[in-house]
Amino acid sequence: MMNGATCRASQPGPPTMSSLRPLIPLLIAAGILLAGNGLQGTLIALRGAAEGFSETTIGLMGSAYFAGFLIGCLYVPRLLRAVGHIRAFAALAALGAAGALLLVLFVDPLAWIAVRFLSGICFSSLFTTIESWLNSAAQNTNRARVLAVYRIIDIAAVTGSQYMLPALGIEGFVTFAVMAMMITLSLVPVSMADRSNPRPPAELRLDLVAVWRISPLAAFGCFAVGLTNSAFRIVGPIYGQSIGLSVSEIATFMSAGIVGGAVMQYPLGALSDRHDRRKVLLGTTIGALVAALAIVWFAGDSRSANMLLVFLFGAFAMSLYSLSVAHANDHAEKDQFVQLAAGLLFFYSLGAMAGPLLASLLMQRFGPHALFSYTSIVYAVLIGVTLYRMSVRPSVPAARRRRFAALLRTSPVFMRMARRSRNHRSAGDT
């Protein structure tokens, strides 16, 4: 048997940035789409409120988006198998751009709900196409770097796009036109990318009973994250507007929550690799609960207090999905990972379909701070479920814990990319 030094000597050198050059067009396209999607979510909420739409109507638009999101994830592999990646991407981008323009041509609640449903299908399918392409084109030597660059692009694009709103304004035609242009321009780097036609991803095989049996806590945790995080992303801008924030301050408010989650995911994930992951999940949920209650009880209309507390809220709340998935992976066999990815995404999507509508109904009835009262109730239930599961199931031994990975919820392919990256790193360490 070779010793560790010999194994390391036989490994290829660290990947350089030149190894990512073939993937740059796809990463650029992903950045454009992530920015467009982040811009559309906030714009819909603020422009809808300006047009006199109720909080419930705006919440229903968010629910429609996530319903379309789930349908796109379920059926885009068939489309990719039928026409290939480039043609599928072109058709979906055209539909997404047309939908963005329809929003300003037909300012009507029913029309916007229908367009948001279509947008959910388009964006989830576009991200699945891009990530399937990246997964196929990336090599084991640079896969971890691709994932890291992709996450950086996600954070930069989503947070940066928020500041297009104060720059362009929420009134009139301009922002919708820019949004349509962004979706259309994503076609340019894709058309210049590698002309290979990668193998389409496997269709989502849903066996929810099997996923629940693998980890009831992870399944419920993903559902709870869907209930809360989707509500924050969809009606969070309405909360900011209701407490008197300007458009630029709303952009900062939403960005603070997103950046907080990005900052804390890896420290919390590393902690969960070393200790019982359920304890870290429990502590993170308590942190999200305390931050949500602090916004309700102490923030009031204070701009600085809201900015600080929403950063703390995002730091804990946005990390819960990856922690839940990592806990499920600890209990899964190797042949169950694809099924697990599909099932957990389904549970998240169920929660995400209900969350914006529930939160908006409560906000309309009890005022803007009901958003964070609602999230705190969901987190309290998740804390109870976690404590119960800790009492009936022993912890996973440290030797069996799989490495944590911070996950995007853009498509189930991202989870597979992260899994292949972790498996390669583990093999290199042996």
- Indicate the CATH class: Mainly Alpha
Order of helical and strand elements: HHHHHHHHHHHHHHHHHH
Uncertain stretches of 5 or more adjacent residues: 1-15
- Count the beta strands: 0
Enumerate how many helices there are, as a single number.
Answer: 18
- Global Rg: 21 Å
Strand content: under 5%
| CATH fold-level name | Growth Hormone, Chain: A
Q: Portion of residues in helices?
A: over 70%
Describe this structure in words.
The chain is mainly α and 430 residues long. It has a single domain, classed as MFS general substrate transporter like domains (Growth Hormone, Chain: A), CATH 1.20.1250. It is 79% helix and 0% strand. The protein contains 18 helices and no strands. It has helices at 4-10, 24-50, 55-83, 85-105, 109-137, 143-162, 164-168, 174-185, 187-192, 208-214, 216-242, 247-274, 277-299, 303-317, 320-331, 337-366, 370-392, 412-429. Helix 11 (216-242) packs antiparallel against helix 12 and helix 15 runs antiparallel to helix 16 (337-366).
